[in-house]
Amino acid sequence: MGRVQDKVVLVTGGARGQGRSHAVRLAEEGADVILFDICSDVEHNAYSLATEHDLEEVGREVEKTGRRAVTAVVDVRDRAALGTALNDAVAELGKLDVVVANAGICPMGTDVPIDAFANAFDVDFVGVVNTVHVALPHLSEGASIITVGSIAGLLAEKAGPAVSMGPNGAGGAGYNLAKQFIDKYTMALANQLAPKSIRVNVVHPTNVNTPMLHNEPMYKMFRPDLEHPTLDDAVLTFPILQGMPIPYVEPDDVSHAVCYLASDESRYVTGVQLKVDAGASLRF
Predict the structure, then answer these.
(1) Is the CB of residue 76 less than 8 Å from the CB of residue 59?
(2) Could you report the per-residue pLDDT of 196-238, keeping only the tens digit for each?
(3) What is the H or E stretch that residue 49 is in?
(4) Which residues are catalytic?
(5) For a Cys-Cys bond, which of 33, 110, 131, 261 suits 101, CB 3.0-4.6 Å?
């Protein structure tokens, strides 16, 4: 316990899924947490996103650990609103030590319009850039920036743009491109901030057991042979992505990596791709 004792951490997309797991884990390890989430659905995204109730619930979970929580409903695509919300939160908590740029969507499906490409890219990449850039004025020596990429994006980059479009449609292509850009952006930013002793790293998960994975368009990507695949259908093919014989990792598995990168245990670790992928990158 106490691996991030008395640090102040910002987590975007903090109301559900990976973000919720990261927030609670970091609070358990001693951090105060700033939680941002859009708390509404994004057009063309097939699964429902978190609600204000979800955000309030995570805030209470953080407070049950004895740590402070500041929550705000904010869209990471809106840099001005994001900056205002962060300034207010830092004023309340006194500082900012760690940024976890986690907010993301994945609007899969071959029948979605090109707007799905724009929405995925804007949330998944522009939202990360907005989050980090409004945070930079608050960060000082010893701070840690953690971006969340995706092993799927890296594999799509290796396969080439034609394959990355594949059965994913426009939204999947926007998602993959965003995650590829996150990787490159993180490495470039790490180089810029190293002289200031501010660390920047990216975590690349494989399939994670969250609502982003559990929806029919995603199941369809894994079972294109079926018109309306269910979880029972898709779980048979989920393991094809990983080297290890598992369908997906749990949010906690990614939170362990995030906690390490947020802590002083990784004080000299920067510019690293930390893959929580059960061997997916090795397999392909």
Answers:
(1) no
(2) 999 999 999 999 999 999 999 999 999 999 999 999 999 999 9
(3) none
(4) 175
(5) 131
